[in-house]
Amino acid sequence: MRNLILIGGGGHAHSVIDVIESSHDFRIMGIADRKGKMGARVLNYSITATDDKLDALVNDNQYFLITVGQIETAEIRLRLDQELKHAGAKLAQVVSPLAKVSKYATVAEGTVVMHFALVNAGAQVGRNAIVNTQAAVEHDVIVGDFCHISTGAILNGGVKVGNQVFIGSHATVRQGISIADNVVIGAHSYVHQDISEAGVYAGVPAQRIR
């Protein structure tokens, strides 16, 4: 088993910890978070470091995973990733044993695929992404970096998702649709045409709301 430090001890970390413990690929050595949280417990683990000194934690025997959640913005995850990259850290890739990732799909470093998610043949999922519980990334879908495909969301075949995109719970994207960078899709929305501009979209069919 490889040693792993989590960055972020909020609610998303709880779900990721459960996935990590189920996979038996990594041993969680501790959690880094804000200074005010030092010593706090997150499930069975302690916050043992602060996220403003990540470079001091980096060594050849340690992997890292950003476990800060992402809804409307990936800003915090981006900042943490840049700090880890600058320090030469190795990022983990975590896939639940209850998920189905095709041998013909690719999942990049820093990404977590949660329980009962599907990543089908020909799909590509970028760096530091979240494919959340029961999400479906269908055949030949491309998901960019720093995306969150939320619980129960469905990306149908051939969909192309840009970077830093949030797809809300139980949203559905029609086959072949392209979504630009920095887009937020609201929960239960239906995306039936390409989205070429950043913004927040919601509804059935999805329309820009801001």
Q: TL;DR?
A:
By secondary structure, the protein is mainly β. The chain is built from 2 helices and 25 strands. The mean pLDDT is 94.
Features:
mainly beta, single chain, Rossmann fold, globular, 2 domains, 210 residues, 8-stranded mixed β-sheet, 6-stranded mixed β-sheet, UDP N-Acetylglucosamine Acyltransferase, domain 1
Average pLDDT over all residues: 94
Rough outline: globular
Strand order of the largest sheet: 7-10-13-16-19-22-24-25
β-strand percent reads: 25-35%
Quickly give the CATH architecture of the largest domain: 3 Solenoid
Major sheet: 8 strands, mixed
Number of discrete domains: 2
Explained architecture:
- With 210 residues, this protein is mainly beta.
- It folds into 2 domains: 2-92, Rossmann fold (3-Layer(aba) Sandwich), CATH 3.40.50; 95-205, Hexapeptide repeat proteins (UDP N-Acetylglucosamine Acyltransferase, domain 1, 3 Solenoid), CATH 2.160.10.10.
- 12% of the residues lie in helices and 33% in strands.
- The protein has helices at residues 11-23, 75-87; strands at 2-7, 26-33, 41-42, 45-50, 62-66, 90-91, 94-95, 100-101, 106-107, 112-113, 118-119, 124-125, 130-131, 136-137, 142-143, 148-149, 154-155, 160-161, 166-167, 172-173, 178-179, 183-185, 190-191, 199-202, 207-208.
- An 8-stranded mixed beta sheet has the order 7-10-13-16-19-22-24-25, with helices on one face. A 6-stranded mixed beta sheet has the order 3-4-2-1-5-6. It has a 6-stranded parallel beta sheet with strand order 8-11-14-17-20-23, with no helix packed on it.
- The longest helix is centred in the N-terminal third of the chain and has 13 residues, at 11-23.
- It is globular.
- The chain starts with a strand and ends with a strand.
- 41% of the residues are buried.
